[in-house]
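Why should sequence recovery work at all? Because a backbone constrains its sequence more than one might expect. Tight turns favour small or flexible residues, buried strands favour hydrophobic ones, and helices have their own preferences. The token representation captures these environments compactly. In the example below, the structure is given first.
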């Protein structure tokens, strides 16, 4: 894609990966570390890429802007805050570092639905997908207010902003198996994915 979207792709890589036992960003799926898979997708889509991490040295060889969590050990909401804070563009598409099957068509569909929303978020039958969503920099203050209240879930600030929910039926034809939203938290989940047939 020659014309990239004027968005920042934000990868949250600050989790402790306690259930996996190793840094999830570097787990290989189909022979490629997940962080590289995400980065490759983002490189083709976005003008800017940010990685938010508490281990900056691990990502220094990645062609991206690497930032340490402004509020360490405060979870994904603080990671989102950091990504929004450092983004030089008005909107960010934010994902976790353990999502190996991002789908460019689904991401592009979300971008097309932006209009005047502060947050564009897909909803599957499992619920909202806050770590596969678009956030405006105008969310910065609501996110900070939510963190100051001691809350840590991304969805906690949604009542303060203009939220656009994209129902599963709208994007299902682009990703019928909803692989976009698969994340790997445990060795068992990794094995299940590796054993899935066919892997695409």
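From this structural description, the recovered sequence reads:
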């Amino acid at each position: 894609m020659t014309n990239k979207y004027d968005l920042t792709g934000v990868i949250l890589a600050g989790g402790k990966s306690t259930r996996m036992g190793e840094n999830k960003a570097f787990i290989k799926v189909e022979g490629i570390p997940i962080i590289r898979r995400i980065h490759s997708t983002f490189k083709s889509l976005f003008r800017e890429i940010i990685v938010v991490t508490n281990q900056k040295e691990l990502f220094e060889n990645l062609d991206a802007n690497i930032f340490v969590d402004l509020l360490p050990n405060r979870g994904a909401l603080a990671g989102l805050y950091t990504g929004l804070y450092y983004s030089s563009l008005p909107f960010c598409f934010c994902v976790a570092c353990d999502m190996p099957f991002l789908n460019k068509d689904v991401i592009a569909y979300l971008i097309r639905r932006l209009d005047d929303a502060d947050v564009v978020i897909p909803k599957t039958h499992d619920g909202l997908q806050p770590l596969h969503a678009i956030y405006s920099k105008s969310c910065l203050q609501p996110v900070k207010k939510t963190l100051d209240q001691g809350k840590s879930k991304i969805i906690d600030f949604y009542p303060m902003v203009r939220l656009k929910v994209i129902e599963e039926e709208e994007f299902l034809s682009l990703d019928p198996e909803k692989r976009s939203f698969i994340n790997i938290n445990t060795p068992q989940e990794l094995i299940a994915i590796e054993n899935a047939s066919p892997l695409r």
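A few observations help interpret the result. The first strand starts at residue 5 and ends at 12.
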